[in-house]
Amino acid sequence: MSLLGSIVSKILHPFGGGSAEAAPSSTGGSSNPASTATTGSSTSGAAPAAAGGQVDVEQVLNDMAAKNPQTLNWRTSIVDLMKLLNLDSSLQARKQLADELHYTGDKDDSASMNIWLHKQVIKKLEENGGKVPADLKD
């Protein structure tokens, strides 16, 4: 599975409820297995869903962060987001993610690349049925 696929899958399908695609869903999210999740507490064993059956990305990540011993700023850092998901966050892994997302900038300028990667990952989460907080959208 691609890095992007792993990210999307761990957030939108944390219990293996479906396979995540790196491309936007053409079904508008109606076939999203997480759409049957309850809007209540995440202790129900299902991914938290927002109104309309979307997975609440912010709630899922905040719940994961609360259980993580490290203080990770997933809202602004691609490195911290990847760490929160127990994925390799090394520069090499981020360059691989940049390739998957067709980054055209200078990969040696890791600060610019990281900002771009974070925005793209958030965008892909939304395209694949996630409810993304307004302050994280471009």
Automatic annotation (TrEMBL):
Region (Disordered): 18-53
SUPFAM superfamilies according to UniProt: RPA2825-like
Biased composition (Low complexity): 22-53
Pfam families: DUF3597 (PF12200)
Database matches in InterPro entries: DUF3597 (IPR022016)
UniProt domain DUF3597: residue ranges: 4-133
Name by which UniProt lists this protein: DUF3597 domain-containing protein
Organism: Methylobacterium symbioticum
